[in-house]
Amino acid sequence: MANLNPINMDTLGQNFFTDEYVSPRQQFMGYAAGTTAPGSRQRDALYRLQNPLLQQYYLGGLVNPAAGENPMFSGTGSFGGSFADFMGGQVVPRTPEQIASGVPMSYQNQYTGQMGGGNLRNLAQTVSNISQLTEGSGPGGFTAFLENPDRGVTPQQAAIYRDIYQTGPSARENQLGLAQLLATQNPAGGMYGGIVGRALGQILQDLYTTYSTQNPEGNFLNYFLERTGSGGNQGLASLMGS
Question: How many Å apart are CA 137 and CA 1, to the nearest integer?
Answer without folding.
Answer: 9
